[in-house]
Write a structure and sequence with these properties.
Layout (H helix, E strand, L loop, with lengths): L15 H9 L24 H16 L6 E5 L6 H14 L3 E2 L3 E2 L6 H15 L8 H16 L3 H4 L6 H19 L4 E6 L7 H16 L1 E5 L5 E5 L2 E7 L2 H17 E5 L5 H13 L2 E4 L5 E6 L1 H11 L3 H13 L5 E2 L1 H26 L2 H12 L7 H7 L9 H10 L3 E2 L5 E2 L2 H8 L11
Parallel strand pairs: 1-7, 1-8, 2-4, 3-4, 4-7, 10-11
Antiparallel strand pairs: 5-6, 9-10, 12-13
Length: about 450
């Protein structure tokens, strides 16, 4: 007997189109795994394994064990992923129970001592120091609180007592001792946009405070009753633009080099980006479906290859190209046409602006060298030919500029023949990129 639908819940009949739409609407803004936004860890993570292992296998274990280990300075051009890298490191630290500051971004002309002082007071509270009933600590908190409000201003300089950096060092040491006593805990301080600290005296005070705390030794009792010295579990990461290395190397000198190891990040090779997308191609990215379960969004190999071609190894552009391809359709397969559509309609101008900002930041002489390289055939880009194209009589006259573009900025690579590390800059200066080539469009 046919069912009777005349009573109870009425039968709802969906059209074939409605059913199809409900099944294929897999991609939304909520489940997009790409993120070109700064200061976040994108779900689709690419590369930086060396720096991540440096934290997990070297910096943290040595600091927890009381062994000496330098702080880290991570520099790089905008969009290379400095903040995302440190956010990922900070998340790992927090998962281990470490005491982590927020990202302490230093705006232009801001007083970094105020910002760091406020962050250290929060760490001290997390360490339980704010509840201690010791006059010594009460006085220290008062001094650091003054710094967090007034900074290194005239009101402090007129007051009696130690210099602001001394108070910051003392509080860092107290936090380090508390972390040591807690066991298996590191106090991690991350200061971002360090190139904005233009006052050399303030920069010197900040670096000395951080450095002195990291090298501070305390005596502890080892098994057997012996007294041994160990370093405090304090780790400091500084991040910023390559200008920091240029503008302050003379002021920081050898002491800074002994206390901080500097790494300049560069663009990715295609291998790292291909590895990040391979799970997409092989098994797909799991997303909620419209029926309370899960589905998977996969990617055509041709779509993966197009993303690699368009982003030119730039981490920011990689995330941007992936995000716009995700939004260019709703099916469970990302196609090459969707990658091109997303790039052309919404990403192309942003990609151009990204590279233009990097180039515009460069000093005139460095821009001239890049243009001289572009004017030469790739197999003729020797230092001698580049120097001649720039109007120099001797190749050595172009040496310092090439060194900065290579070592400090990671834009070119020196050798018998000079090449571009930053493929986006090369493509922007030498081709129609970021437009999609007609034969690929």
């Amino acid at each position: 007997m046919a069912p009777n639908h005349s009573r109870g819940t009425p039968l709802i009949t969906l059209s074939r189109t409605q059913c199809f739409d409900n099944v294929i609407n897999m991609r939304t803004s909520v489940n997009c795994p790409f993120s070109p936004h700064a200061d976040v860890v994108p779900p689709i993570w690419a590369g930086r394994e060396v720096q991540l292992r440096d934290w997990s296998d070297i910096v943290r274990p040595r600091r927890v064990s009381g062994l000496p280990e330098r702080g880290r300075t991570i520099l790089g051009e905008p969009g290379v992923g400095k903040s995302s890298l440190l956010t990922k490191i900070s998340e790992d630290a927090a998962e281990h129970g470490d005491w982590v500051t927020t990202q302490l971004r230093i705006p232009s002309k801001a007083d970094p001592l105020k910002i760091v002082a406020a962050a250290l007071l929060k760490l001290a509270k997390k360490a339980g120091l704010s509840t201690a009933r010791e006059k010594r600590l009460d006085d220290l908190f008062r001094r650091v609180s003054d710094i967090s409000v007034k900074g290194v201003g005239l009101s402090l300089r007129e007051a009696d007592g130690p210099e602001p950096f001394t108070s910051l060092t003392e509080l860092l040491v107290e936090i380090g001792i508390a972390a040591m006593n807690r066991g298996d805990v590191v106090a991690l301080i991350h200061i971002d946009e360090v190139q904005n600290i233009s006052d050399e005296h303030v920069l010197s005070q900040l670096l000395i405070a951080l450095g002195d705390a990291m090298v501070k030794e305390v005596e502890v009792q080892a098994p057997g009753g012996f007294l041994v010295k160990r370093r405090l579990p304090i780790s400091v990461y500084l991040t910023g633009l390559p200008d920091f290395a240029d503008m302050s190397s003379a002021r920081r000198g050898a002491t800074f080099a002994r206390r901080f190891a500097t790494t300049t990040l560069e663009s990715f090779g295609d291998d790292a980006l291909e590895a990040a997308l391979q799970p997409f191609v092989l098994s797909g990215w799991e997303v909620p479906d419209n029926a309370g379960g899960t589905g998977r969004v996969t990617m055509e190999p041709a779509a993966r290859d197009e993303i690699l071609e368009l982003c030119k190894g730039e981490p920011f552009l990689f995330q941007l190209a992936g995000e716009k391809a995700w939004y260019a359709g709703s099916t469970d397969v990302i196609t090459r046409d969707q990658v091109i559509t997303g790039w052309t309609e919404t990403a192309r101008d942003e990609a151009a602006g990204h590279v233009e900002r990097i180039i515009e930041r460069l000093p005139q002489r460095e821009r001239e060298m890049l243009e001289a390289m572009i004017d030469l055939p790739p197999d003729k880009r020797s230092l001698k030919n580049i120097a001649t194209s720039m109007g120099f009589e001797k190749s050595t006259q172009a040496g310092p500029t090439s060194q900065r573009l290579d070592t400090n900025r990671k834009i070119i690579r020196r050798g018998n023949i000079y090449t571009f590390r930053n493929r986006a800059i090369e493509a922007y200066l030498s081709s129609e990129w970021p437009d999609v080539a007609p034969e690929r469009g």
